């Protein structure tokens, strides 16, 4: 005999994010110091990671990859133990309780027909994988016109990829994960 009220079909199991664990496993001492702050030509890149409501994300991790000031991409080991020597082109910084991150680095030179940029990855709760974006520099507006990646971004959204210059040698780049001011993110396959 069949039951008049059969059991409902099981629902799919929701996907789960891993973490937050970034403050325990991925940051390392000196991670935000791609170059020493005293190095000639050093710049500070800083900002906040914000969620869709504009609230800061205190447990995100920001990672950067970039060329050096001449546009050369580093091709040697040594990203974690720099000791003030060389340039690895890589940095990693966990956000603080106010969602802030910072890097001491150099402004990269242009590579492969692109305007100078820094590749930015953001790991955060609620994300199954990091999101990828680019940070461009405001003084390179002429080069932005011919950048092949920026050409694919609607003109109304390009400003989410351009840092704000703050004083001598500092740039602010806030990452908005969602919402009205959402940063443009790219898919890499």
UniProtKB/TrEMBL annotation:
EC numbers on record: 1.13.11.3
Family annotation (SUPFAM superfamilies): Aromatic compound dioxygenase
Keyword line: Dioxygenase, Oxidoreductase
Domain named Intradiol ring-cleavage dioxygenases: residues: 43-112
GO molecular function terms attached to this record: protocatechuate 3,4-dioxygenase activity
Matching PANTHER family: DIOXYGENASE, PUTATIVE (AFU_ORTHOLOGUE AFUA_2G02910)-RELATED, PROTOCATECHUATE 3,4-DIOXYGENASE ALPHA CHAIN
Similarity comment text for this entry: Belongs to the intradiol ring-cleavage dioxygenase family.
Name this protein carries in UniProt: Protocatechuate 3,4-dioxygenase subunit alpha
Classification lineage: Bacteria, Bacillati, Actinomycetota, Actinomycetes, Streptosporangiales
